[in-house]
Amino acid sequence: MADEALIVLENVNKWFGPLHVLQDVNLSVARGEVVVVIGPSGSGKSTLCRAINRLEPISSGTITFDGQPLPAEGRALAKLRSEVGMVFQSFNLFAHKSILQNVMLGPLKVRKEKPAAVKERAMSLLDRVGIASQADKFPAQLSGGQQQRVAIARALAMQPKALLFDEPTSALDPEMVGEVLDVMTSLARDGMTMVVVTHEMGFARHAANRVVFMADGQLVEQNTPEEFFANPTSERARDFLSKIL
Ligand code: ADP
Ligand code: MG
């Protein structure tokens, strides 16, 4: 089961008008695998993430999740979205709801689960991300790092089969980056399937099974972090790494 592909993109293209932002992208993510996506701004990393849970429809090619083509609409799409959690740069918590309510909302409203069971799971997830003592506070009372950890707990509350992270630490003050990466590293070690867009090369080195380098809408190279950082094969990857390392 370990090598079975959970997310498969085949010849995926995406145009925004004349702009060809995903160009024949092929990518397969196995169950339990952690894939870190890096590359310059504008290279299509966010579009790739958004395509996987169909926040962005693709122009051509196919994406399958857990053996099924991505559904276009309706209940099947809602189910897909609950199985593929997403954590954004901006935490997008509901400001007028408590931390606990934020984490409980999806399972209650989307899944119609029983409140008692949802509350128990939400509290245990808040404990897992180190925020249990803040459960009754409101988002504005928490630091950015704490809010992002709540956003991760909220995604986990839906018991997803995979989590997508789009620059989850880019909006944080530097001293809060580590606490969020620690939570992500722990999820990775526990076998969560993750696609992570990040500029945190330390996380890529230590938590990724594979690093994917994108430039100009193309998946230019992919390799283990050891190989990628030691021997990037493309000029564009070498150039990118020379600027950020
Ligand atoms: P990255 O996340 O790597 O910075 P994006 O996926 O956000 O790149 O964007 C890839 C390209 O697509 C960029 O040129 C961006 O300006 C363009 N783009 C992204 N979203 C839209 C949109 N909704 N409409 C038009 N162009 C877009
Ligand atoms: Mg982006």
Automatic annotation (TrEMBL):
Its main location: membrane. The keyword Nucleotide-binding applies. Residues 7-241 form the ABC transporter domain. SUPFAM superfamilies: P-loop containing nucleoside triphosphate hydrolases (SSF52540). SMART domains: AAA (SM00382). It is a peripheral membrane protein. Pfam families: ABC_tran. One of its GO terms (molecular function) is ATP binding. It comes from the Bacteria. CDD domains: ABC_HisP_GlnQ. Keywords: Amino-acid transport, ATP-binding, Cell membrane, Membrane, Nucleotide-binding, Transport. It is found in: Cell membrane. PROSITE patterns: ABC_TRANSPORTER_1 (PS00211), ABC_TRANSPORTER_2 (PS50893). PANTHER family: AMINO ACID IMPORT ATP-BINDING PROTEIN, GLUTAMATE_ASPARTATE IMPORT ATP-BINDING PROTEIN GLTL. Belongs to the ABC transporter superfamily. This is Arginine ABC transporter ATP-binding protein.
